[in-house]
Amino acid sequence: MPFAPGEGPIHVALTFDDGFWAPAYATMRSICLATRRRADLVFHLCHRPLSDGHRADLLKIETEFGASLRFYDLTLSRQLLDLADRVPRHKRLSDIVYARFVLDRFLPDDVTRLIYLDCDMMVVAPIETLWETDLGDKPVGAVEDPWGKWVGSGRDIRQHGVLDPADPYFNAGLLLIDIARWRAANVAEKLETHISDGTADRLQCSQNVLNLIFQGNWHRLDTLWNVVDPAPAHVSLNPYNLHYTGVSRPWHLFSRVGYARLYRHVMTNELFYRYWRFRMKKRIAKSAPFLKAR
Q: Where are the domains positioned within the chain?
């Protein structure tokens, strides 16, 4: 049955751990600020254990905007814990990114369509415009990645790797998912196969695995829904969603990325500086053994 746009809940999923609660809050708050359908928003927060204080921060979204939050502790998912022990490691990414593969396994039955977002994003356009996109018969919609040839094929863009550089390649940080068709595509089962036969190790990261699974079977969304590493010049494009994947992030104190000042106010100044102090304390604690050794 084709998706019928209109009134009703808008389901959005985020995955993060306790150290990334503030960017997750900023992503949610950006969505709420850019839409008039705030009460329709249902945020599915797929997380590792959260401190009481960080959970309270996240719940402010309900108080301020009337949106709904549903919490899912990923450490209670035996399937995900098992996956985490076997998936390829990435030097910059947590294995929590593999939660995307099994979202359909623990979300409730009333979720038939889902927007998945990475937490390093800021949405600046009405999310319902994305939500109501016609996917046709495709299980997933995504934006073509400007770095796809390099990310998917490695250094020197190897032609004879698992992924062909001639094929369109999407960024998996934003996905519009038809849950029934996602299940029919056997995403989790295919991941298991790719782990068993060594393909996942060759692909190195979850985004590459998703591109292999959905090769030729995804709907291309408007590029403005996932503008990667925005610079100040991107403001003139009026992007819909900003994706901060680079070394410099908008929650850094002296960040020069695009929309950095707006991001600080979306996160709110109070939480921005509190998160900065949180990150500095973690960095100092991590450096303490080295300093003592000297």
A: 10-293
pLDDT tens profile 72-123: 998 886 666 666 555 555 444 456 778 888 888 889 999 999 999 999 999 9
> What's domain 10-293's architecture?
Alpha-Beta Complex (3.90)
Q: Which two tokens stand for residue 2?
A: 């084709």
This prediction's pTM: 0.91
CB-CB contact of 121 with 173 (8 Å) = yes
Answer yes or no: are the C-beta atoms of 229 and 242 closer than 8 Å: no
- DSSP string of 178-244, one letter each residue: EHHHHHHTTHHHHHHHHHHTTHHHHH-SHHHHHHHHTTT--EEPPGGGSEES--GGGGGG--SEEE-
In the numeric block, the tokens 């019928």 are attached to 4
